[in-house]
Structures are given as structure tokens and as C-alpha cells.
Amino acid sequence: MPDFDVAVIGAGAAGLSVAAISAGLGLKVALFERGRMGGDCLNTGCVPSKALLAAALAAAAARRAGRFGVRLPEPDIDWAGVRAHVTGAIAAIAPNDSEERFTAMGVTVVRAHARFVGPRTIEAAGRRFTFRRAVIAAGSAAAAPPIPGLADIPYLTNESLFHLPERPEHLVILGGGPIGLEMAQAHARLGCRVTVVERAAIGAREDPECVAPLREALEADGVAIVEAAEVAAADRDGPGIALRLADGTCIAGSHLLVAVGRVPRLGGLGLEEGGIAHSPAGIATDRGLRSVTNRRVWAAGDIAAPEGLGPRAFTHLCSQHAGVIARAMLFGLPAKVSYDALPRVTYTDPEIAQVGPTEAELRAAGRSGLSTLRWPLAENDRLVAEGRAEGLVKLIADAKGRLLGASVVGPGAGDMAGVFALMIGQRLPLSALAGAVLPYPTAQEAAKRAAGEFYTPRLLSPVTKRIVGLLKRRP
Fold this sequence. Notes:
InterPro entries: FAD/NAD-bd_sf (IPR036188), FAD/NAD-binding_dom (IPR023753), FAD/NAD-linked_Rdtase_dimer_sf (IPR016156), Pyr_nuc-diS_OxRdtase (IPR001100), Pyr_nucl-diS_OxRdtase_dimer (IPR004099), Pyr_OxRdtase_I_AS (IPR012999). The chain is an alpha/beta fold. Helices cover 32% and strands 24% of the residues.
């Protein structure tokens, strides 16, 4: 008999979800984790970054209070206090992901590096464990681009950024994606000089109409943005660092944050011994997240590369993966992962949210008969009252009024994304949102008004006007 029904490698968001579901269903579960419980999201990703952004937002609010007739002095940034807030947020959430909690569920937690030594055997802590089913949820790590000299300087990643004892004097950020932009704005608002260096354009994956207001906001916060920049070399510059660009420009700073993407943690897992196919993108799986070569093994989270979809590095995707694996692995149901309604959010101020494909992606895929619907947040009463009415809701629908993609930039864009994810995932028509009764005044009304734009031309058409003209004669 196998030692365990389910063996899970990795105690991040995906692994914890699978372990909790499996144990809750009465299965014998082993959970292997060599690092901190909770993985990157809790310890070095989502939680500390959003805590830092919250501190930065408080500083920005103090600086902008004068426009409401509230005069405050320039905020005094206590870096030790900011760090205490960040670590306090992690500590408050940590019990949910703790070894004690999962042990109480009946999970056997093994705090050691785990590797496959056979198709159905894992070795960890000097022991061998056999399993019926296994789930690899080892996550991802910050990618390091092949820049000459980079390996010889003390650069930061998300794993080390939140442990700085002193506030950086000049933080240079390599990468203009979500992590780079969030940390750029946070540090600029907390009193650091910040320069973002991006080889293409910042927010390159997002709708350009949404990126434009964010670029203005970042520059207003004092962030210097260098785009279309090819880094030729990285060097030390006294106690700091320097990036030398291909055009001869030198950008020097006190600290360098590398935020150019993520790579799956494949090393040391013994994938060859386990008969598990993989590539630099991650574990090769079918749409049910099952290994294409070892049918006893599944993959979840950042390390999974489903056929035709590739990897995605989002914490909320981990819960979706866990649900698919539970249905497919535990119940034998034909569950498959889909990213059609997958939301992503850049938690800057303003936020950028994208659900499903962008307009450019849909048109590049050859979709025709598309309707592009826009509603400016300048027309939203709540945001006007709060002095935050900058941004846009942009919806892309097919000819029948079914939502295909949504792009939002503005305050609370991430909260609005949930409505669009539900609509796309459930294939709801725009009429469902346009006809909904929403509380006034809220930012969500902008989503409703954008959906209503699909029907406005029909309601005001000459045919409709003639019908109303005839009906007015009724007794």
C-alpha cells in the first residue's frame, strides 16, 4: 500500500489549497515544504507588496489632502515603522498557512526538500514516501536576464526587497511590468528616488489606453521612466550600482531591483527520475493539469504549463487550479482549466485591471464584428466627489452583446474586475449588467454605463423613435 493517497510538493497558495481539499475529503495527505509555509505570496509577494503599497497610499493621501481643504505637513516617513507594518501584515495572515493548522487537518507536513526518485516515490528528510497521486506546486522565482556583470553585483528581487533595513536613496528598477511599476510607485511615494528601465514599453501587456493614465500618475509621483532601453552591462558604482545602456547612457543608483518576470522552480525536483516531462516554461500538462508522461502526477500554480496555454503567475489562479485538480484527480471528472475569464490587476494608483483578452489580442486573433464600449470615470459621480475621477472602463463585446474582454484603469479597478470575470466566465450578455440595479453612488456604476453603451444606438435608432411615436397615440 502507498504511504499516502496524495503527496503535494510546495506549501504555497496552490499546494495548500490542494492539501486542504484532499485532507478535507478524508484522504491521507503529505505536504512537503523546504522553505516558509505560505510560499511567495505570503512571504515575498502579494502580502508584503500590498502592505507597502498601503503605506505609500497613506503618504500620498496626506500630500493630496490640501485639495479637500485639509492642510497637512509633508509626511515624515519612518522606514522602520513601514517595515513593521509589512511584517505585521505577514504575521497576521501566516496562521492560515501554518504547519500547525494543516497538521490539525490531518496533513503530514514534512519540512524538507523533496524530489522524485521514481514514478511513484518521493524522497525527503532522508526517507522515501510512496504515493497514489502527487501534485507539484513548487512555484516560481524571479528571472535574471543575461546581462553581463549582473551576477557580480548585489541586486534585489522580490525575495530580498522587503528586508532592506534602510530606505533606498535611489532605487533603479529593471522591468516595467506589474511588480516593477507597483514597487516604483510605492518607493517613490515613500521618499525614494526611483528610475524604471524597460526594454520595450511599461505595461506592455495591457491596453495602451489604460497605460497612459498610469504613466502620467507615475511621473507625477516622481518616477523616472526610461523605455526602449537595451541594457548592455551592469556594474558596481562605488557602494551602489550602474546600468550601462546600449546607447551609452549610464543610470546609477543605490539599489537595483530586477523585476523582469518569473521562471518555474524546476531544479532539484528529480523530474527525470519521476518520468515527468517539462520545459523551461514548466511541467508539461494537459488541460486537466495532469502530467503528459506520468499519469499519477499533476501540477498546479506557477509551475504548471498546460498544453496550449502556458504558465501564468497569479495567486488567484492557484485556487482555480486546485479546483480543477480536485475534480479531475479526486473524482475523475473531465475538468479542464480555462483562462478565458482570467483577471489580472496591477495594484498601482490608478489600478489597471484586465479580464480576458485585450482589444488588440482579439483583433490579432481575427475576431470580427467586435463592439468597443467606453465609459470615462470622469462621468462617475462617486469618483468625482472623491476627486479621483481619472480613468476608463473599456469593454469588448461580440455582435450578440456577449462580453469577451474588459480593460479598466482607475481607482478600484481590481474590484470591478470581479464583475467582468463572472460575466465572461458564465457567458452572460451585457444586458445582465446594463439592467442591474446598482447602489448609487459607487464606482461600479461605470461598469454598468459602459455595458449600456452597447444598447444605446439601438434605443435611439430611427426605427425605435418611430415605434415610440406610434405608441404615444395610445389612449
